[in-house]
Amino acid sequence: MHDRTAAEDVAQQVFLRLWERPLRFDSTRGSLRTFLCTECHHRCVDLLRADGARRRRTTFEAVSDPYEDPTAADGLAQGVATRVGLAVQSLPPFERNAIELAYFDGRTYREVATILGSPEGTTKTRIRTGLRRMRTELTDLEFAGRAG
Fold first, then answer.
1. Which residues contact 7 (CB under 8 A, 6 or more apart)?
2. What gap in Å lies between CA 22 and CA 8, rounded to an integer?
3. Exposure of 101 by Cβ count < 10 A (0-12 exposed, 13-18 middle, 19+ buried)?
4. What are the angstrom distances between the C-alpha of 48 and each of 43, 53, 55?
5. What residue spans of the chain are helical by DSSP H?
6. Closest CA to 43 of 19, 9, 20
7. Distance between terminal CA atoms of the chain?
8. How many other β-carbons are positioned within 10 Å of the β-carbon of residue 14?
9. Whose C-alpha in 9, 81, 91, 101 is 20 to 30 A from the C-alpha of 67?
């Protein structure tokens, strides 16, 4: 984690999760030590990925042309936001909810799965399928905008 405090937080979260759901540990599959280390590893990966995504968003937002007309940029951003909003609204509710939690609320796959009460694999599939649908929808909107 490169940060002692973050590592301590991960350890606390893992132990708390074990305390709240002790049946997740199955001694026939391995030792308690192995289980805890695996849980810590997965949680660290989730946090690092979320942090990387936040940094990329921040960097993307910070990069702008100082000579660009701010009103034109605002208009472009509003147009993109409108298109993305339409694409999100066109999704089935189970995909839309997962994507909104993951991308607009900044949640990890694991957190989204917990909130929605679905398995992680199902949640990842819903997000991936929803993003593909959105890509198709956005491509269709882009071509319709050029033709019109």
1. 1, 44
2. 20
3. buried
4. 9, 9, 10
5. 4-20, 32-62, 70-89, 93-99, 109-116, 120-147
6. 9
7. 50
8. 20
9. 81
Contact 44, 1 (CB under 8 A): yes
pLDDT in tens, 85-122: 888 898 999 999 999 998 888 888 889 999 999 999 99
pTM above 0.90, yes or no: no
Place of tokens 């609204």: 89
Q: Are 44 and 10 in contact (CB under 8 A)?
A: yes
Residue-wise pLDDT for 35-53, tens only, equals 999 999 998 888 888 887 7
Contact 123, 112 (CB under 8 A): yes
CA dihedral 108, 114, 117, 122 (to 10 degrees): 40
Tell me how far apart the alpha carbons of residues 91 and 128 are, in angstroms, rounded to a whole number.
Answer: 12
Number of other residues whose CB lies within 10 A of the CB of residue 80: 11
Residues contacting residue 137 through CB under 8 Å, at least 6 positions apart: 86, 87, 90
